[in-house]
Structure of Large ribosomal subunit protein uL18:
Amino acid sequence: MAKRLTQFERRRQRLRTQIRRKSGGRPRLSVHRSSKNIYAQVIDDAAGRTLAAASTLDASLRDKGGADTDAAKAVGKLIAERAKSAGIEQVVFDRGGFIYHGRVKALADAAREGGLDF
């Protein structure tokens, strides 16, 4: 019997399929948002490896707090910095089923300001 997926899981799968089809081999900037923290990873899907990661749990961001747009901006700048140091300039943005609004949008804008192209 097939497992019934939630609306969030269906949206996530649909987005991930579109991103893989249209990415052109670029790494994926994946965002996960919880009620207390926000996480970002740059993932190479071809190799199945995480190339760079940042979250509000990092030691340098602990004083920022984890549940507001200011913390998301700090994570966006940090992930852009780490991705550029790993030699990554262009990524595909994966909002992970979350609406592009608030903290997710703040992280994306900060990553763009930090030099990532998507």
